[in-house]
Amino acid sequence: MSGEGVTASKSRTRAAATTGLKVERVWTTEGVHPYDEVTWERRDVVMTNWRDGSINFEQRGVEFPDSWSVNAANIVTTKYFRGAVGTPEREWSLKQLIDRVVRTYRAAGEQHGYFATGADAEIFEHELTWMLLHQVFSFNSPVWFNVGTASPQQVSACFILAVDDSMDSILDWYKEEGLIFKGGSGSGVNLSRIRSSRELLSSGGTASGPVSFMRGADASAGTIKSGGATRRAAKMVILDVDHPDIEEFVVTKAREEHKIRALRDAGFDMDLGGSDIVSVQYQNANNSVRVSDEFMRAVQDGGTFDLRGRLDGAVIESVDAKGLFRTISQAAWECADPGLQYDDTINDWHTCPETGRITASNPCSEYLHLDNSSCNLASLNLMKFLRADGGFEVAKFVRSVEFVITAMDISICFADFPTEKIGETTRAYRQLGIGYANLGALLMATGHPYDSESGRSVAAAITSLMTGTAYRRSAELAGVVGAYDGYARNAEPHKRVMRKHAAANDEIKPTGTVATEIVREATKQWTQGNKIGDKSGWRNAQASVLAPTGTIGLMMDCDTTGVEPDLALVKFKKLVGGGSMQIVNQTVPRALRSLGYPEEQVEAIVEHIADHGHVVDAPGLKPEHYPVFDCAMGERSIAPMGHVRMMAAVQPFISGAISKTVNMPEAATVADVEQIYFEGWKLGLKALAIYRDNCKVGQPLSASKREPAKAAPPAAPEKTVEKVVEYRPVRKRLPKKRPSETVSFSVGGAEGYLTASSYPDDGLGEVFLKMSKQGSTLAGVMDAFSVAISIGLQYGVPLETYVSKFTNMRFEPAGMTDDPDIRMAASVMDYIFRRLALDFLPQERRAELGIFTAKERAAQLRAEAEAESAVDLAAMAASAPVETRSEPAVERQVEAAAPERPAPQVGSSTELLEAVLGKAQDAPLCFTCGTKMRPAGSCYVCEGCGSTSGCS
């Protein structure tokens, strides 16, 4: 579809603006319902705890399209289907869920005059249904939780509260925050209006200060979390940099981290979710400092900065700006808090300054607007707009943004809110947050390194097109149903911000034909939207944010969340019928083909990645293409400034901000944190947070204390001594009488005997090897080797450790054996430890080591043959149109065969990455199912059940 076609369709929409929107089909076919275009299948959803195998959810016979992955279906079933499990009222089909939401949107749109005719409303319903059915976009979680149910129809995920300097206001804050947490959403608040602990009360006493009141709010959040909310409480606490209590605020969580370490070393359970962690304060909130340009310039120039009282604005103290900035960076280095929010930049892009300043954000810092307001989110799946030839479906993207932003605005018409103050502000300013997911996958698939000018060019272009289209549609909606109530008093500043966005779009320097085409269309959208807005105003004070897209990203089967790069090249995948497997991300072969590699090389490179987890030294891969495959973690991880530069590239085209944490290596210094925070300000970001690897005690899945990487010590005047707790293994001896078995073997003509003794409660504990005559050198070496292995086993060395070290060891004698399960051996050691693995290790552990019985190999070959047959069928259908090809059906057939292959015992992509890297990653365990979570923006998401640690 040409650019002229897009413009023509928009002209037709504007022509009907006075009587309602005329809606045209984009994804659907007239006379065919979207449900009739897909193949449906029944599945059983049984969710088990990865740690102990217990069942924590079960619903059988649920209905989903066959193209939906097991993960996506499981998450929708467990999270979004309404009704008590096991009752007839419980939803059991994706059709029911989509109909419940979409029909509510359509009815509200018709009621409030959004559509020109009933036929237009029907097309709107079908288009939304098609897009949700095919995972083109998703609303945020509260929509799926609440819309169309008997519950209050809360549609917003992000809330901002306000606290004044009075006890009534502070107690209201506790109550309002609790109501928001109860509904599974998060909120943020700026405490800077509360007078400092260095100011007087009217009674003559000294004020407590905001930090003291944070304790009560933190305890409330922890209580509601432990009381069984849908997820842990998510909150943001902010303090302005000129507040007299700023230093106390900055170090609160760092001091608590010192306490955690001391308690841990004393033997208390201080891991995340541990029984003793609840005694530590301030752990339920993200903390951020709101810094001004004045402060940052004082840091730059080495000057002083004034801290001012809250009552009269009088200077209470002048501090060294660099010293305070170092304290902030030091605390962030120690415990990842506080982050920074750049106040003047935020308010320079504020569309409604006549109503009030922007003082706070939601917990993940992507929503920044008026106090006592909320924002509902929706995110597009960018990979759905990638053409087979590497191009981008610009026209379909534009039309999809139109549909989504219209639906989001309609939702405010019927939405309920936790407090009346929030409801009034949201209805008056109608803040929306359209965004996207899968940017990292899109860049990799098209051969663009995430940390490159070309990658940033594509990202900036897409973001500009999305927001430009959203505001253009918002201006058209203003012509149909009116501008937002607060527009009249904010008309000029709103227009000024729109011009700033358009000017930033003009500064994009596209690299390549794809980015050039997108920027060209984005320029049209901004020009046309501002022209309409000058006449009609805008329906929404805010249009876009970049959210974490945690749960909904999994619902859409996205490889990457929000603006993030890929987590790693190898990921964990659940299979139809149960089981799991690790696969190389499907974007990798697509990227290799886009870079011009032939199929033979693609297969070899993918095999290398599957074995090693990275592309370094992959056969035939050019070193200049390595950066295309750089990820957030792993062998070639993206440098911290690479993340910052990507954020800076897209920030001018976002109404709000970006939920993202800049990951830093453990060896990073306090000076490195200072540089990141300073560069964020210079590059025009609105908010920025860092996380230094291993800076927190809560290290799930770590059996012992890890040796930290060498890093510059924190800048502290006193020398600290950390207590070291040494753990020694204990030998578990075998009883006098123990079960054993002896196997005779022959390797390359050399004969011998292997005797293996077990503990009565199972588990290998002793090995004896006999080869050659008694008294010979070889017999003596074998005896000594047997004793060494046996003692190691009794001290707790896992058998799989020995197996991984000694299998594939090559020396004579080698060759044919007389064992039907091990036909060839590279050496006697290779044979012995393969035999021990077959006799004493479970199948899934052996599968990771590549050791199978003859029967298992035969089953594996049958599965591969069936998979090849399925692929051949797909190749025969290659002449069919792309949109009707049933590629997911091929994947399903492969998956159906694949469960016969044992899979590694991991529960998430993060755990798989740990297995590849051989070290633990800083991510919490899911509070619902115990799976290791993975990063999603500044939050974490569980791939097992979809729970998130913050915004959805």
UniProtKB/TrEMBL annotation:
The keyword Oxidoreductase applies. Residues 882-908 are annotated as: Disordered. CDD domains: RNR_II_dimer (cd02888). Pfam families: Ribonuc_red_2_N (PF08471), Ribonuc_red_lgC (PF02867), TSCPD (PF12637). Its EC number is 1.17.4.1. InterPro entries: RdRp_reductase_class-2, RNR_2_N, RNR_lg_C, RNR_NrdJ/NrdZ, TSCPD_dom. The keyword Nucleotide-binding applies. Residues 735-838 form the TSCPD domain. It is an enzyme of class 1 (oxidoreductase). Its cofactor is adenosylcob(III)alamin. Residues 45-135 form the Ribonucleotide reductase class II vitamin B12-dependent N-terminal domain. It comes from the Bacteria. Residues 156-691 form the Ribonucleotide reductase large subunit C-terminal domain. Keywords: Cobalamin, Cobalt, Disulfide bond, DNA synthesis, Nucleotide-binding, Oxidoreductase. Residues 884-894 have a biased composition (Basic and acidic residues). Gene3D superfamilies: 3.20.70.20. It catalyses: a 2'-deoxyribonucleoside 5'-diphosphate + [thioredoxin]-disulfide + H2O = a ribonucleoside 5'-diphosphate + [thioredoxin]-dithiol. One of its GO terms (molecular function) is ribonucleoside-diphosphate reductase activity, thioredoxin disulfide as acceptor. Belongs to the ribonucleoside diphosphate reductase class-2 family. Catalyzes the reduction of ribonucleotides to deoxyribonucleotides. May function to provide a pool of deoxyribonucleotide precursors for DNA repair during oxygen limitation and/or for immediate growth after restoration of oxygen. NCBIfam families: NrdJ_Z, PRK06556.1. This is Vitamin B12-dependent ribonucleotide reductase. The lineage of its organism: Bacteria, Bacillati, Actinomycetota, Actinomycetes, Micromonosporales.
